[in-house]
């Protein structure tokens, strides 16, 4: 069983910082599945990844266009399957071609196409917290599928802790990431 980790983001800016901390760990061929609540910050996390990978310009949700492609250090494909109704629609879209070994693929609502994802990918789940006084707070859980993602997450956590502390000097209360129980659905990664 591979370790999963979670962190609470207290603002959209912190969610972008967490995405930016993940970016240096990414290489072409990597796939990230983004799951969670509607409006929980999936696109905001992608904005952080894209900015840290040198993407100029605005990064927006591909909900209505299905796929956005960005050029940075590496090509980034940002896919949103929310409006697709079946695996066949995803396949008709050319999903196999989107698993481009020359690009990084980020899939919003990736849990809907989990059987189509490669054995090796990172699952990121964003949820609103239950505290009504903390409307911008999000619980972000990282579940690695594949041993190399464990190593990449270790690097991301170190970078994220440093960047989050720098963004909020005087507010640091120690490590923000915590180990969480494994996903009950199991790990199909190699």
Summarize the structure.
With 190 residues, the protein is an alpha/beta fold. The protein has five helices and eight strands; from the N terminus they run βαβαββααβββαβ. It is globular, with a radius of gyration of 16 Å.
Task: Walk me through this protein's architecture.
The protein has about 190 residues and is an alpha/beta fold. The protein has one domain: 3-Layer(aba) Sandwich (Rossmann fold), CATH 3.40.50. It has 5 helices and 8 strands, in the order βαβαββααβββαβ. Helix 1 crosses helix 2 and helix 1 packs across helix 5. It starts with a strand and ends in a 10-residue tail after the last strand.
Helix-strand makeup class: alpha/beta
* Rg value: 16 Å
CATH class division: Alpha Beta
Mean pLDDT: 86
Q: List how many beta strands DSSP finds.
A: 8
> Which runs of at least 5 residues are low in confidence (pLDDT < 50)?
186-190
What is the string of SSEs from the N terminus onward?
Answer: EHEHEEHHEEEHE
CATH superfamily heading:
P-loop containing nucleotide triphosphate hydrolases
End-to-end separation: 11 Å
- Largest sheet composition: 8 strands, mixed
Major sheet: arrangement of strands: 3-4-5-2-6-7-1-8
Q: How many domains make up the 3D coordinates?
A: 1
Helix content: 25-40%
The CATH architecture is 3-Layer(aba) Sandwich
Total number of helical segments?
Answer: 5
- The backbone outline, from C-alpha atoms, is globular
* Binned strand content: 15-25%
Question: Topology of this structure?
Answer:
Blueprint (H helix, E strand, L loop, with lengths): L3 E6 L2 H11 L8 E6 L5 H11 L14 E5 L3 E6 L6 H6 L2 H4 L5 E5 L12 E8 L9 E8 L1 H21 L10 E3 L10
Parallel strand pairs: 2-5, 2-6, 4-5
Antiparallel strand pairs: 1-7, 1-8, 3-4, 6-7
Helix pairs in contact: 1-2, 1-5
């Amino acid at each position: 069983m591979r370790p999963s980790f979670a962190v609470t983001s207290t603002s959209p800016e912190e969610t972008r910082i967490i995405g930016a901390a993940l970016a240096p760990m990414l290489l072409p061929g990597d796939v990230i599945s983004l799951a969670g609540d509607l409006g929980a910050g999936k696109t905001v996390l992608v904005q952080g990844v894209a900015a840290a990978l040198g993407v100029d310009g605005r990064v927006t949700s591909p909900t209505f266009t299905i796929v956005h492609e960005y050029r940075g250090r590496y090509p980034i494909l940002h896919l949103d399957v929310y409006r697709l109704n079946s695996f066949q629609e995803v396949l008709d879209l050319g999903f196999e071609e989107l698993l481009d070994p020359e690009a990084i693929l980020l899939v919003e609502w990736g849990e809907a196409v989990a059987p189509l994802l490669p054995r090796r990918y990172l699952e990121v789940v964003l949820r609103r917290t239950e505290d009504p006084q903390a409307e911008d707070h999000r619980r972000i859980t990282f579940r690695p599928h594949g041993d190399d993602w464990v190593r990449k997450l270790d690097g991301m956590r170190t970078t994220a802790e440093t960047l989050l502390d720098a963004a909020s000097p005087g507010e640091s209360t120690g490590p923000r990431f915590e180990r969480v129980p494994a996903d009950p659905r199991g790990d199909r990664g190699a």
